[in-house]
Design goal:
Blueprint: E1 2-3, E2 11-22, H1 62-74, E3 82-83, E4 86-89, E5 99-102, E6 109-118, E7 121-134, E8 138-144, E9 147-153, E10 160-166, H2 173-189, E11 202-212, E12 222-227, H3 230-249, E13 257-262, E14 267-273, E15 283-284, E16 291-292, H4 295-304, H5 309-318, H6 324-332, H7 334-346, H8 352-367, H9 381-392, H10 398-411, H11 415-422, H12 430-443, H13 445-452, H14 456-469, H15 476-489
Parallel strand pairs: 12-13
Antiparallel strand pairs: 1-2, 2-10, 2-11, 3-16, 4-5, 4-15, 6-7, 7-10, 8-9, 11-12, 13-14
């Protein structure tokens, strides 16, 4: 993105994204402590290894390695035949050993890519590396009487952490956000992580710099942290681009620093001077041997991968004829994907478009939890397919079908049972509907006059009144036809 329109110079934003993701494993990265970081009390899931006690030795978590290899395959990255572990040295209170076991020169995955859809079209984001490391403890800042204090919870210390770093190829805040969203969806789809931003399961950091357009050299890089939602990612980067541009135009120097994002005020703020790789004094981890990757294991992991989001969107568009919007809505929500696929399997001949409309509309509305009695887990794909089939064949109206879906979600009854119990069979007999049409016309003479005058909204109003009289069971198309015929005959 080109920012600034001064006659003197125009600036280009250069953005790299670093994402840390907690992996789905039963135990931590290098010890047997539980990796359940839910509602446990502070400092419960700890041992000499993750507390950094002298003499404690690490053991590699195979499942964590598998998740990173699967991620590498999914982002079309290369995996070396041999990888190794490195010590990243720095001294923060949340790092008990004074160093972090990570990967530096030989990551498990490198030179990958991920295509993302933006308002300007498809952008391919290059991925420098995806490597495995251990997480830090968690600092909690609070008050103790008059004092501000910081508390340490070591339950997270040593948890397996995947770090994914892009090339500096992103040039606008929207692309950065879309990349983070797409990567999260991919990681959830392959089962590597829950990637919940709100709980810290996925943490996004952006490296932002500006340079005069048309030049190759990078500007002064600023790291932005503490972005806890995708919206925050976009807002923080937009602010930082504007802040840096204003400083450059005013002739103010920029420093390489780490800045936090204040979501309430909508600004970034200085946290500390940014470290470089030299500051970390990397060297090979002496307590862990190099890790050799068996090609047969890679093939096994590749074969076990599910259909990836990009491939699924493409299939929905090309094979099922869905719009890009419908395909994106279905693929982005895991529950929507699951129920849509199950419904398709139950009734392959059902209109994919009509089924997609029900999933993205009524089904997803019920998943929002507005009705505490509804459990969407009670709505199977087969029952949803049966409901849409009844609507498509004209046996029940769309209005009644929404009520049926609601009752299935509340009770777990089958669709056929709800329809029979409620008497929801659609009325498609014109002679049975004519009396209701005549009564509604008589009660609404102004609307009837509007229909005769050619006002289309009036037909909708009268149709709605007939639907009310018939408890939503009337065939709406037939009702409209009868209204037109009756008023034309008058």
């Amino acid at each position: 993105m080109l920012v600034g329109t001064s006659a003197a110079v125009t600036y280009e934003a250069v953005i790299g994204i670093e994402i840390h993701v907690q992996l789905r494993t039963a135990s931590k990265m290098f010890c047997g402590c539980s990796n359940d970081l839910g509602d446990a009390a502070p400092n419960v899931h700890t041992c000499p290894v993750c507390l950094g006690m002298p003499g404690a030795l690490p053991v590699i978590n195979r499942e964590a390695v598998r998740h990173v290899l699967a991620t590498g395959i999914a982002i079309e990255a290369s995996t070396p035949p041999v990888t190794r572990w490195d010590r990243k040295n720095y001294f923060y209170p949340d790092l008990p050993k004074g160093y972090q076991i990570s990967q530096y020169e030989l990551p498990l995955a490198s030179n990958g890519r991920l295509a993302v859809e933006t308002s300007g079209g498809t952008v391919e984001v290059g991925i420098t590396r995806a490597h495995l490391e251990e997480d830090t403890a968690r600092l909690q800042h609070t008050r103790a009487g008059e004092r501000q204090v910081s508390l340490l919870d070591y339950d997270r210390s040593g948890a397996p952490l995947l770090e994914i770093v892009t090339d500096p190829v992103i040039h606008d805040a929207e692309t950065a956000r879309r990349y983070a969203e797409e990567l999260r969806l991919l990681l959830v789809t392959i089962g590597a992580s829950h990637a919940a931003m709100e709980s810290g399961g996925m943490r996004v950091e952006a490296n932002v710099s500006l340079r005069p357009s048309g030049t190759e050299a990078f500007g002064t890089r600023v790291e932005v942290k503490n972005m806890n939602s995708f919206r925050s990612v976009e807002r923080a980067i937009e602010f930082e681009i504007a802040r840096q541009e204003a400083a450059l135009r005013a002739g103010e120097p920029l420093i390489m620093e780490t800045r936090g994002w204040d979501d309430e005020r909508g600004v970034t703020y200085h946290m500390r001077t940014k470290e470089t790789s030299d500051d970390y004094r990397y060297f090979p981890e002496p307590d862990l041997p190099p890790l050799r990757i068996d090609p047969a294991w890679l093939d096994e992991i590749r074969a076990a991968l599910p259909e990836l989001p990009a491939a699924r969107r493409r299939r929905y568009r090309e094979e099922l004829g869905l719009s890009a919007y419908d395909a994106d809505v279905l693929v982005t929500d895991a529950a929507a994907t699951a129920v849509f696929e199950a419904a398709r399997a139950a009734d392959p001949e059902l209109s994919a478009k009509k089924l997609a409309n029900w999933v993205s509309g009524e089904y997803l509305r019920l998943t929002k939890g507005e009705d505490p009695e509804v459990d969407v887990g009670r709505i199977s794909g087969a029952e949803l397919a049966a409901l849409v089939r009844l609507v498509e064949e004209g046996h029940i109206s769309g209005t009644n079908a929404k009520e049926v879906l609601l009752r299935v979600g509340r009770t777990g009854q089958r669709v056929a049972e709800v329809v029979a119990d409620a008497g929801f069979r659609q009325i498609s007999d014109s002679s049975a509907l004519q009396a209701a049409v005549d009564e509604v016309i008589a009660l609404n003479p102004e609307a009837a006059a509007d229909v005769r005058a050619g006002t289309s909204k009036a037909i909708g109003f009268l149709t709605g009144q007939v639907m009310k009289k018939t408890r939503g069971q009337a065939n709406a198309g037939l009702v409209q036809e009868l209204i037109r015929q009756t008023l034309q005959d008058d």
